[in-house]
Amino acid sequence: MTNELTPKFNPTEVEAGRYEKWLEADVFKPSGNPDAEPYSIVIPPPNVTGKLHLGHAWDTTLQDIIIRQKRMQGFDTLWLPGMDHAGIATQAKVAARLAEDGILPQDLGREKFLDKVWEWKDEYATTIKEQWGKMGISVDYSRERFTLDKGLSQAVRKVFVQLYNKGWIYRGEKLINWDPKAMTALSDIEVIHKEIDGAFYHITYQIEGSDEFVEIATTRPETFLGDTAVIVNEKDERYKHLVGKNVILPIINRVIPILTDDHADMEKGTGVVKITPAHDPNDFEVAMRHDLPMINMMNNDGTINENGGKYEGLDRFEARKQIVADLKELGQLVDIKPVRHEVGHSERTGVVVEPRLSTQWFVKMDELAKNAIANQTTEDAVEFYPPRFNDTFMQWMENVHDWVISRQLWWGHQIPAWYNEAGEMYVGEEAPEGEGWTQDEDVLDTWFSSALWPFSTMGWPDENSADFKRYFPTSTLVTGYDIIFFWVSRMIFQSLEFTGKSPFHNVLIHGLIRDEEGRKMSKSLGNGIDPMDVIEKYGADALRWFLSNGSAPGQDVRFSYDKMDAAWNFINKIWNVSRYILMNAEDVSADAVSSALTKVANKTAGNVTDRWILTRLNDTARRVTEQMDKFEFGVAGHILYNFIWDEFANWYLELTKEVMFGEDEAEKDITRAVLLHVLDQVLRLLHPIMPFFTEEIFEKLPNTSGSIVVAEYPKVRPEFNDDKASEGVAMLIELITAVRNIRAEVNTPLSKAVPMLIKSEHADFLNAVSPYISRFTNPSELTIAKDLAVPEQAMSAVITGAELYLPLAGLINIEEEIARLEKELAKWQKELDLVNKKLGNERFVANAKAEVVQKEKDKLADYQEKFDTVKARIAELKEN
Fold first, then answer.
1. What percent of the chain clears pLDDT 90, i.e. is strictly above it?
2. Where do the DSSP E strands lie in 51-190?
């Protein structure tokens, strides 16, 4: 049988070769339909330093869900892929690989080293694309970009030159964060502050020409080699007599002045502060106020330089040990007090960052920040999901510092500035004419080029580029909250400056993936999870289901293999349901399905369960679409799961067996058609989240052609809505469930027939569906009436619209039954209290939609009826 599915879902078999077929069919490219609304996403580019991690798998999964749904909804969708050169990280990786063969980058020189980096890039870009394929992401590879390709490099130079000409890029000597391992400057947000164990070293400096000493405290005693002053507060009576005098730095015996400055806090420590302008940001400001010299005492690699006297050549931490020992020997080390404090570490290499005076290139952020802040009050404002991250963005923009953009690397966009021997500097998009010009050795911060990504990838600076005109601004960006500062904010202010528009309409922020204990995944903890290993075991669909359903926007999620097992079980459930349907409906034609659905909608054929499931399908499609539009993928997944597992598989499928095992062939044809239609729609609803197995089943349906990738997404069909059928089957399900619960309580298996009485105003309906009641509850006698005598000794249950009695004489204990009913009474009382509280809230009643308020009132009536019925039954049992 051509439509047959294997008995058990096997993700490896289902996903093998599927992605390649999609690429061959070009189903991921934009439709090119000029009448369709464009919807575009540019992928947050992974860097080319290695394999994808779970965080990037999360990014790509959420983006793929969005773009697949929009594609199915008829949008002209573009999902543009690309990769980031990641200057510091990539150069470090390649240098480490060369070091294994005893080769230093300097041995090769710039050009030959860059050849090695390009080889690395090609190797790992191929790996990343293979992993994207395993994830199933539906990008258009014909538009793939790289941050160092020709077009993007042109955009980078243009932006640099324009900002320079406006005076917003400048070169100057300032205190910056220095990475001694990568030997490059870092921006503030590339520094991670970690708590570590350290110490306050209390040291004495002798007053010149006297036997008097002042005491200072520092966590970095090696920096005294660069001290150029000590300061006290002018109001500090303890030191007024010393102002204007000098102290002698121990060991190196350099004389420096004692000055007054408000930076010295009389209440903190000894009130005396050493000033090391070239190695501390606060000290740098003091030095600027007092015109102090600035002595850099450290080489690029973190060793002490020629200004360190006998410590020259020592690593900074080794120098610290030697200096502490020498101070102790001199008697000028007063105390060492342990302290736990925050110390800056390089985000890329992990080493302790060194504040250091250095000549660098900077972006002046004042006007760029003002423009970004002002834009958030306009119609062009970027919408953050969740909205609280707008505050995060705004707070950073309001407190932003000038951005140091030069990096002392070879891998990256070389700064478009040239110098000659006459001391002249030229800045331009191309090299200056004439001889004797040398280009700046430094490259730009990777984030400088990444900040242009949404528009540079679309062909800018050519604003007549077809893609730029069609797909920019992009529709949605998906990224983690950890790079709002690094990337999101920079894309916004650069896009506003150079295109006059926000780079995207929406920003969906997700959290971090943590381990089962809630810890951040890291190499040091050994708790990292390779997404490719997960796919190998469970398949990409299961991983994507977990990633999309793990948390709400902006929240962290804990990875769990139990959740992966649950995801696999869910897929296997759908697989088995599909097998059942295909085995029973493989020959149903498209015309037969269409005709059957029309008859069900017109109530000229089919039964109440058919009308119920189509109503529930409508409601599911509506609610899932609403939640997807709000990026609430977890809520959408929960709605889908409940419909598929509970209503479709556990109930409708079972209810259809009353028809499928019967004799009425015409009714069987209707049921087969409805089963096929619902399965078809379920696969389409699931496809954006779980693309592989949905395509596998979809292509085996008897009336489908082409790929589900471009199939129409489900829409609400009003003709299928039938509130009476929906209410009726809900009552039927509640009744069957109540009988099963009662049987379980008195240990009476379903195989044993027992009498059953149902009292209901809906007796006509219940009698009409009595074959279902009999199939699923096995009554020896079934009595359904609007009014009937209530048996004295019976287990009972109150459901919406009916009272159920099972006369089980000899099997029930009256006192236990009363106790059970009293618990049920308490349950309904609690529900009443909750609804009454909500309806008693004037703000809720005034602001909520009318249908929402009415729904609560309907609940109140239902709960009150159940409460009254249970209460009356308790009274009856107590009287007897």
1. 74
2. 76-80, 82-83, 145-146, 169-179, 184-186
